[in-house]
Amino acid sequence: MIELLNVQHSISGNSVLENTSLTLTGNQVIALIGPNGAGKSTLLSLMSRLLPLQTGKILFDGMDISTTRSDEVARKMAILQQSTHFMSRLTVEDLLIFSRYPYHKGRPKTEDKTKVEDIIQYFGLEALKHKFIDQLSGGQRQIALVAMTFCQDTDYILLDEPLNNLDMYHARHLMRILKQAIADWGKTIVVVMHDINYASQYADYIVALQQGNVLFHGQTLEVLTESNIGQLYNLDVSMLTLGDKRFCVHF
Amino acid sequence: MSKHALTMIIAIWIVSSLLFLLLGSGGDLDFVWRFRVNKWLALNFVGVSVALATFLFQTVSQSRVLTPAIMGLDSVFLLFNVLLIGILGGAEYAKISGSIKFFLQVVLMMLFAVAVFGLLVRRFSMDISRLLLIGIALGLLIQSLVEFFARLITPEDFSLFQGIAFAQFNRVQTELLGVVAGVLLFVILMLWRIYPAIDIYRLGRNSAINLGIPYIKMTTNLLMLVAILVSASTALVGPIFFFGLLITAIVFALFPTARSGSFMIMAAFIGAISLVGGQAIFEHVLGLASTLSVVIEFIGGLVFFMLLLKSRKSN
Asked: How far apart are the first and last CA of chain A?
């Protein structure tokens, strides 16, 4: 369970996130949606302690991220930011071993290596494991970076727009892995998304932000309505239902 | 990094050390012991500290074209000395023991590094370029103060100051060797403890915090280590600008995938080899017809421009 209590954030006097309190239950994909500049990335950065909290508290299963030791938090929650660049030249395997740092502190043990092998198989990265990150295509790179957060073996995973620049194949591959991981390992995954249709297909729960406020939140099927989406993006949209799936037409 | 490469590097280091110690000595070991061993030690210490300082500074600044000289630490060193000369006069200045001056310098440089950069990191921890710009501006300010004070002192004092202001590999301050050895040993022990964390730190701020590195604390600690190392090399031979860049560029070209631990070992050896081997050639073969510091800084400067042009192309 993720709890946000009275979290608020402003940058040089301008409020980017109004006073927010939210309780999110675990074992599901939670999509953060909203127009550009709504405060989604800020919220994610606050939840992952990349931005220090200005007010309030954030708890993961009762663990307060601002008072708990950083390396302990690193075993509870992992984050992938939008643009991730590395100074050193690293292979996919190196990167996965590095992501075990909260456990091995620089001296990898057999269990770390086993975990890395498991993750390589789970994500289908066998052919790429000795390749350097800068040799990979955008899609492969993104999958490898998400694999890194999984290798960190945390209950909670936060992903900031992981579908950015991915083609249909890689986007579907990635979302299916995320869904599968919830069934296999009971993870809780918070994803910032722009495509309502992806959110509709893969998210169990939706949190919609607008100008730093939570406009609505709830089960996907309940909250993804024409009036909600129309209000959120200030657009006329229609929702189509096809079988048990719901599509948003916004063209 | 392969064992093979390390063996090669150590072999080259031994050969250049032997050349430096024995060349032209006529096998007179007493002479070697009295006149050359101290200098050999000093050159090694400088090579190692410049190499490590540059690597650590590039780690903190997330850049491969910067050297610690940009922090203005050497200007602090010059300001300290010009003030001391100006206030006490050249004769009194020369009487102060080297180790006392050294300790004052180390303390001043660390205070400067922590006061300026430590506080800035706390306030602007996301923005390393702003930090560097402030560093450059402060460095220039102090540099101008140094020039101002240098105009106020007498010509005799000024020529004494000139001797301090340029890197000198021919006349090293050998009386400081013991202190510097201790300081270097301390830094190396620290690095031995934290080098796996440096690998994680080099993944960048967000990834480092994500993996549980106390980022601000570690940045401050790394900057302190840089300040200590720069003080050590500056005290022995004077300010050095591009030499460190030359070393890290060589190591990166030879071992592009080296992890921090191996990188630092390689850089330390290559730093020592360049100075010991270079000085052997300049002193014993060319008979001091030219100065090593000029050549090394010249090549380092060229490498700097090459790196700049290359990084512009790849962007």
From this structure: 37
Residue B192 belongs to a domain: yes
Domain of residue B199: give its range: 35-314
Strand partners, A10: A15
Number of domains in chain B: 1
User: pLDDT tens across B270-293, in order?
Assistant: 999 998 988 888 877 777 666 777
Average pLDDT (B254-272) is: 90
Longest dimension (CA), chain A: 56
For residue B39, being part of any structural domain is answered with: yes
Q: How many CA atoms lie within 13 A of A8 on its CB side?
A: 8
| Phi/psi of residue A170, nearest 5 degrees | -70, -35
Q: Do B206 and A70 touch (CB under 8 A)?
A: no
Minimal CA separation from A51 to chain B, in Å: 9
Asked whether residue B308 is assigned to any structural domain, the reply reads: yes
Predicted-complex ipTM score: 0.92
Of A75, A87, A99, the CB nearest to B204: A87
Would you call A70 and B204 a contact, using CB atoms and an 8 Å cutoff?
Answer: no
Q: What is the pLDDT confidence band of residue B39, given thresholds at 50, 70 and 90?
A: confident
Exposed/middle/buried for residue A114 (C-beta within 10 Å: 0-12, 13-18, 19+): exposed
Q: Cβ distance A28 to A205 under 8 Å? A: yes
Q: Which residues of A touch B259 (CB under 8 A)?
A: 88
How far apart CA A249 and CA B173 sit, in angstroms, is: 77
Could you tell me which residue, B104 or A206, shows the higher pLDDT?
A206
Residue B14 has pLDDT above 70, yes or no: yes
How does pLDDT run across B134-182, given as a tens digit for each residue?
A: 778 888 898 899 889 888 888 888 888 887 777 666 667 777 888 889 9
Question: What number of CA atoms fall less than 13 Å from residue B136's CA on the CB side?
Answer: 9
- CATH number for the domain spanning B51: value is 1.10.3470.10
Q: Alpha carbon A87 to chain centroid distance? A: 23
Q: Does B27 map to a domain?
A: no
- What is the three-class DSSP state of B207? helix
Residues of A in contact with B199 (CB under 8 A): 88, 98, 106
pLDDT higher than 60, residue B314: no
Q: Which two tokens stand for residue B78?
A: 């010059």
Question: pTM of the predicted model, to two decimals?
Answer: 0.89
